[in-house]
Amino acid sequence: MVSLLDIIGPVMVGPSSSHTAGACRLGLLARCLVGGTPQSGVLQLHGSFARTGEGHGTDKALVAGLLGFRPDDERIRDALKIAEGEGLDYQFEKTTIADAAHPNTVRISIELNGNKATMLGSSLGAGRVLVQEIDGYPVEVTGNLHTIVLVAEDRKGSIARITGILAEHDINIATLRLTRKEKGGDAFMVIECDEQPDKKAGAELRALDWVRWTRRLDKVSGG
Amino acid sequence: MYKALADAIRDAEQQQKTLALVALETEARDQGRPVKEIRAALQRALDVMRGAIEKGLTGDLYSASGLVGGDAAKLRKNPVGPLAETPFRDILTRALAVQEVNAAMGVIVAAPTAGGAGVLPAILTGLAKARSVPDEKVVDGLATAGLIGAVVAERASLSGAEGGCQAETGAAAGMAAGAATEMLGGTPSQVGHAVALTMQGTLGLVCDPLGGLVELPCVFRNATGSAIALAGIEMALAGITFAIPVDEVIDVMGDIGREMDVRYRETAGGGLAATPTGRRLAKERLYQIKRADG
Predict the structure, then answer these.
(1) Is the pLDDT of residue B268 over 90?
(2) What is the pLDDT of residue B291?
(3) Chain-centre distance of CA B133, in angstroms?
(4) Same domain membership, residue A204 and residue A124
(5) What is the pLDDT of residue A125?
(6) How much is the pLDDT for B3?
(7) Which CATH number goes with the domain that contains B207?
(8) Which pLDDT score, from 0 to 100, does residue B62 have?
(9) Which spans in A57-157 are helix H?
(10) Searching chain A, which residue's CA lies closest to the CA of residue B294?
(11) pTM of the full predicted structure?
C-alpha cells in the first residue's frame, strides 16, 4: 500500500531517492541480519546501480546503511572514509544478477563475528525498497514495518505458537503471510509487526525446534 | 490510498470536501494514525523544503563533480528577463535552489523523488508567498500532492530508471499543479484537469543525465518542469478542461515509460548524456569524483 508520507518523503540526503535513500535503506536492512555494523561486506551491484551508482553516491549510501546511518544523515557523504575508521572492510562488484531483475538491485553479503548473511534487494523508486531474498530464501520485506521472516516445518499449530510468543512480548501483528512449496515442506512466513520485536522474542522463536531459520529486520521507512 | 484520481475526485465532490482532506482521512485509515500526526509529518517536510530553498539561494553550493551549482543565486540576483519581479521567476529560482542542494548531497524532501524534488516546494512555497497562503493550506497542498503521487506510483511509475524523466519531474509537475490548483481555490475536478494539462506536457520526457548523475539536466528540468506546472495551474483555474481523463494520461505515461529504450532510463546511454560533450564532461567529472574520494 502506497503511503502519502512515502510520496512526500523521505527527508533525505541527495542526490537520488532510488540510488541514495533507497540504497541506504537496503544497507540498514542488511545490517539487521548480522545485528550491527559488519566487519566485512561484498556488495554486488546490478543494472543501473552498477552503471550509474558511483555518481549517485550509491556506494556511499549502501555503506552508510551498513554503518547504521539513516537516509537523512549528512555523514552519508563521508561514509566510505568513516567505514575505514569503523573497521568495515567493503568491496564492490558489478554484476548481472538476472536479466529480469529490477534495474536497481544489489546483493549484499556481510559478516560480523562469524555471523554471515546474504540479502538480495531492490530500490523501487521514491526511496521504497523490496528485499526479495535472504540467505537464499525468497521473502518480500519492504522495511515499512518491523519484520520477522522465518522458515519452519509445515505443521499444525505453528502459527498459533508463533503468534502466541509475539503476543506474550506485547507485539501486535500487522500482516502475516504464509507460503509453502508443498504439503509438509518448508513453510515461509513474513510477519510484519507494529512494535519492534526484542532479542528475547527472537530467541524464543529460534528455540522452537521446528523453526529452521529466522531473522528480524527493523523498520527503515515510513513516517 | 486511492488507485484512481477519478475516485478521489468523486468522493471529494460527494462529501463536499477538499481532495487534501479526503487524502488525509484515507491515509489515516490506511496507516492507523490520526490525521493530526500525518499533518505534523507533512509540516516537518515543509520545514525541510523551506530549509533547502534557503540553503540553495546562498549560491555557494556545488555538486561533487562541479557540473552544477550557483545558478539559483544567479537567477535571483539578475532579474532582467521577461519574468523579472514575478512569482514565476521566484518559483524557477526556488526549484533550482532545491536541486542544487540535492546535487551537493544536502538534505531535501524527495517529493516524489530526489531528482524531481525541486518542483513541488518551488510551486507551493512560491505561490504561498505571492498570495499570502497560510502554512496550514500549504500542508493541505502537500497532502493533495501526495495523493496524486500515490496514484501515479500505483498506475505508472515514479522512477526514472523505469519510466524516464516523465516519471520524475513530470510526476512532480503534475503533483505540484494539482496541489497548487486546490491551494488557490480550485475545485477537485479542476485539480484533475490541472494534473492532466501538466502531465500531457511532459509525456515522453527521457531521463538522460550526464554520467548518470542527478545534476545535468536534472537541476534545470526542475525549473522547466515548474514552468509547465504553472501553465497547467493557470489553464485549469481558468476552467479549461483536458478531454483525456487524468487517470488515462497517467496510464499512458506508464505505457510510454515501459516502451522507452533502456538508454533513456537513467542509464546515461542516450539523450544529452550521449552527446559528444555530455560524454566528455561525464568522463572528466567522474574521474574528479573518484579522485576526491581518494
Answers:
(1) no
(2) 62
(3) 20
(4) no
(5) 77
(6) 97
(7) 1.10.4100
(8) 82
(9) 58-67, 79-86
(10) A81
(11) 0.86
Q: Is the peptide bond before A15 cis (omega within 30 degrees of 0)?
A: yes
Name the band, by pLDDT with cuts 50, 70 and 90, for residue A183. Answer: confident
How open is the CA angle B35-B38-B40, to the nearest 5 degrees?
A: 110
Sheet holding A186-193, edge to edge: A173-180, A186-193, A146-153, A211-217
Report the number of distinct structural domains present in chain B.
1
pLDDT in tens, B201-210: 999 999 999 9
Residues A162 and A194 in one domain: yes
Last residue of a domain, one of A108, A135, A162: A135
A21 contacts on B by Cβ (under 8 Å): 110, 114
Burial class (CB in 10 A: 0-12, 13-18, 19+), B227: middle
Q: Which domain holds residue A210?
A: 146-217
Interface mutation vs chain B, best among A2, A25, A58, A94, most B CBs within 10 Å = A2
Give the C-alpha separation, B55 to A182, whole Å. 58
Let me know whether A127 and A58 are in one domain.
Answer: yes
CB A33 within 8 A of CB A65: no
> Could you report the per-residue pLDDT of B240-255, keeping only the tens digit for each?
999 999 999 999 999 9
Does residue A23 fall inside a structural domain?
yes
When pLDDT is cut at 50, 70 and 90, the band that residue B293 belongs to is low
| Cβ within 8 Å, pair B31-A3 | yes
Lowest mean pLDDT among A22-26, A55-59, A141-145, B74-78: A55-59
C-beta of residue A81 within 8 angstroms of C-beta of residue A54: no
Task: Write the CB contacts of A134 (distance below 8 Å, at least 6 apart in sequence).
Answer: A33, A117, A118, A119, A120, A141, A149, A215
- For chain A, the farthest-separated pair of C-alpha atoms sits apart, in whole angstroms, at 52
* Residue A178 belongs to a domain: yes
Considering only CB atoms, which chain B residues are within 8 Å of A4?
1, 23-24, 27, 38, 42, 143, 146-147, 150
> What CATH number does the domain containing A100 carry?
3.30.1330.90
Instruction: Give the separation between CA A100 and CA A103, rounded to whole angstroms.
Output: 8
- ipTM comes to 0.93
Best residue in B147, B266, B284 for a mutation probing chain A (most A CBs within 10 Å):
B266
Among A135, A164, A179, residue at a domain's last position? A135
Residue range of the domain that includes B184: 5-293
Question: How are the residues of chain A apportioned to helix, strand and coil, as percentages rounded to the nearest 5?
Answer: 35, 35, 30
Helix, strand, coil percent values for chain B (each to nearest 5): 70, 0, 30
Q: Are A104 and A8 members of one domain?
A: yes
CB atoms closer than 10 angstroms to residue A155: 10
Residue A222 covered by a domain: no
Total structural domains within chain A = 2
| The pLDDT value given to residue B289 | 64
